[in-house]
Amino acid sequence: xxxxxxxxxxxxxxxxxxxxxxxxxxxxxxxxxxxxxxxxxxxxxxxxxxxxxxxxxxxxxxxxxxxxxxxxxxxxxxxxxxxxxxxxxxxxxxxxxxxxxxxxxxxxxxxxxxxxxxxxxxxxxxxxxxxxxxxxxxxxxxxxxxxxxxxxxxxxxxxxxxxxxxxxxxxxxxxxxxxxxxxxxxxxxxxxxxxxxxxxxxxxxxxxxxxxxxxxxxxxxxxxxxxxxxxxxxxxxxxxxxxxxxxxxxxxxxxxxxxxxxxxxxxxxxxxxxxxxxxxxxxxxxxxxxxxxxxxxxxxxxxxxxxxxxxxxxxxxxxxxxxxxxxxxxxxxxxxx
Length: 337
Known about the structure:
Blueprint: E1 4-7, H1 12-22, E2 29-33, E3 39-43, E4 51-55, H2 66-82, E5 87-92, H3 111-122, E6 126-130, H4 135-141, E7 146-149, H5 152-162, E8 168-172, H6 178-192, E9 197-206, E10 209-217, E11 224-232, H7 236-247, E12 252-260, H8 266-271, E13 275-281, E14 297-300, H9 303-315, H10 319-330
Parallel strand pairs: 1-4, 4-5, 5-6, 6-7, 8-9, 8-11, 11-12, 12-13, 13-14
Antiparallel strand pairs: 2-3, 9-10
Helix pairs in contact: 1-9, 5-6, 5-10
């Protein structure tokens, strides 16, 4: 059975790119807003006994809050199930509320778990996302199958193609991100055929304030440093990392962060001349970055990766094989800037 997919209005431009890769047209749908702030959404073609994918990245923009987008996605999934869709897969490039995956203070909410419960209650049969904040928490929160893509297969080929002769070190901005940094290191090493260094910084966060970041475990002196993280928001963590890396003699500093939330505070990070480039994916458009600062950002297109994953899910094929072989096939893809 042919794959069928919808992109809700706020993700339509992203969905159009997926459409080009799949060579299957986006299915039509309707979203209506009412004067009292309520809204409805529904498919405009038959979905009975179909495998349906729903695309929606969950971040706030000038038109809709993240909570608006969550409601629209949940209601649309429910409408698909009520219209007798056989299976509904929620495709969520940026998964909101995933950072709060455990209690760090008394009576804290665990919003990762609540998001899973909402999607399940609406009728989602499967969820796919990219670089979730805590993979184990994501997998354990759901009772339905989950899939997970990794942006290392987008970022690593960029460095292999453009800086193949450099002495790389991959750095995690904190100990908690070491697994992500190790995977990036392995991918870059496989593509370049070179031995890649690894390091991490010490960091603590309390009441939204980042502390530490001055101690580096690993050698970065005279090295081409790639700092790898899943999310960059205000840039406070990265500013600490850049200070520490520069003090310890790093020769060049690049940052890769999958999801560029990039609040207005991130402009301070981009002002720093020691940061050469910030690489992000297109899961969230960098709308708060203006002027000359925008030139420091490279946006990597993730739509081909998602399109291939959707095809494999629909066909019952392995995503592990996709992630293992994807970097080899994307080194010559153009970059979006």
